[in-house]
Specification:
412 residues; alpha/beta; FAD/NAD(P)-binding domain; seven-stranded mixed beta sheet; six-stranded mixed beta sheet; 15 helices; 18 strands; 26% strand; globular
Length: 412
């Protein structure tokens, strides 16, 4: 049985392991963190990623874990509504196949499909890759050297596999001029269920979203072209306090929560642009290969799509990895390129840098309540114009049937 080491247990990694297992491979998953991550941010989930989750039998769990948003609202300094729209427009654009959920919840659900059938190594990471004619010798920081037929990098924007196999991140990263941060709190005084609130000043935005379990998520997006990047949580909090020092709305209360927060997500808003997503026996999927940026809203779905397509091409090629890697890239290259171009247009909408830009953004948002306006403005970015390969579809139908049969056997 062919062996594959997958680096990263977020979204792309567990999806890849699931479909490789269905295709007859023996995947091993390695994750640098000691356990699956919690917290982070919420994602809007639709399109082909949603279809793949359905084929994995996950839609009931996703529906229970997710949120069915009713409104996106932009507020002023005093919390008064200045623009917004009902999210039924997304239902119209996606045929009702749309849900908002925490990225970490999706990760846990995907992990649940492989936890009992796949070797998973936490608290370890790849530190060296030595590709040979018939194998890749991998050195793990804790577990030492192991050998695999293939290595797949599913380890995100700051991919170690990409660095070791293709070159330093600076060669491939394209910074879009913004930074993003997020954290969760419990017991925040104000809650607006199934509503996403945004407050903005030129070059900076605060978002608030009510989560299950009396939790609240805060998201920050702000213009940032600085070369120096805060490395420690204390420095990152200091950067946020400085950037938002003139903010109003609920900022004083949010700042107090920030000071007490145990975990803070903080990163650049960047894309990864590569001429090739594979080299020899090593391939990249998801953000490691083509990060569209966190603000694009489809990173998790694209991670699942790339894993699904690559697994299907490996099955189609019957182990001829060079052929499979070429077909995978050929099938997705134009599709991903279009998503990246759309994400560049979309990034500035979160935090326009000028008062005029804020005003113009709000006028565009107001038009979404008009019939057909949302389809005209964002329809091309929402649409998934890609046919999944027939071989991957064959895997999906077989695996979904086997999953259903196994579940029935357990329940009986």
């Amino acid at each position: 049985m062919r062996t594959v080491l997958i680096s990263g247990a977020g979204i792309a990694g567990p999806t890849m392991a699931y479909w490789l297992k269905a295709a007859g491979y023996a995947p091993t998953l390695v994750e640098r963190a000691p356990a699956l991550r919690r917290g982070g941010y919420v994602i809007d989930f639709w399109g082909l990623g949603y279809d793949i989750a359905e084929r994995m039998g996950l839609l009931p769990e996703i529906d229970r874990a997710g949120y069915h948003m009713q409104e996106m609202r932009i507020v002023d300094d005093g919390g008064r509504r200045v623009a917004g729209f009902g999210t039924r427009v997304f239902d119209e654009l996606t045929g009702g196949r749309y849900v908002t959920l925490a990225r970490s919840d999706l990760s846990h659900l995907l992990y649940g499909t492989i936890g009992d059938s796949t070797e998973i190594v936490f608290d370890d990471e790849i530190v060296a890759l030595d590709e040979r004619a018939d194998e890749v010798r991998v050195r793990l920081r804790r577990a030492g050297e192991r050998r695999f037929d293939l290595v797949i990098g599913a380890d995100g924007l700051h991919s170690s596999v990409r660095r070791l196999g293709f070159g330093p991140q600076r060669v491939f990263e394209r910074h879009l001029g913004y930074a993003v941060a997020a954290f969760e709190v419990r017991g925040y005084d104000v809650r607006d269920e199934n509503m996403y609130l945004m407050y903005g000043q030129p070059g900076r935005m605060i978002g608030r979203f009510a989560l299950h379990g009396d939790r609240t998520l805060f998201l920050f997006v702000f213009a940032d072209d600085a070369d120096r990047w805060p490395a420690t949580p204390a420095d990152q909090k200091a950067r946020l306090r400085d950037v938002y020092r003139c903010a109003r709305w609920e900022w004083p209360a949010i700042r107090n929560e920030l000071d007490r927060a145990d975990e803070l997500y903080f990163d650049r808003v960047s894309q990864i642009r590569m001429d090739n997503w594979s080299r020899g026996r090593i391939a990249l999927i998801g953000d490691a290969a083509f990060c569209v940026s966190l603000l694009a809203g489809q990173g998790s779905a694209l991670a699942m799509i790339s894993a699904y397509v690559l697994a299907g091409e490996l099955m189609r090629a019957d182990g001829r990895h060079e052929e499979a890697f070429r077909a995978y890239e050929s099938r997705l290259r134009n599709y991903i390129g279009a998503k990246q171009r759309g994400a560049e247009r979309f990034a500035a909408a979160f935090a326009p840098r000028t008062p005029w830009g804020l005003w113009f953004r709000n006028q565009i948002v107001r038009t979404f309540s008009l019939p057909g306006a949302a389809r005209l403005v964002i329809g091309r970015d929402i649409a998934d114009k890609l046919d999944l390969p027939a071989m991957a579809g064959t895997i999906a139908r077989k695996s979904a049937f086997e999953r259903l049969a196994a579940s029935s056997a357990i329940s009986s």
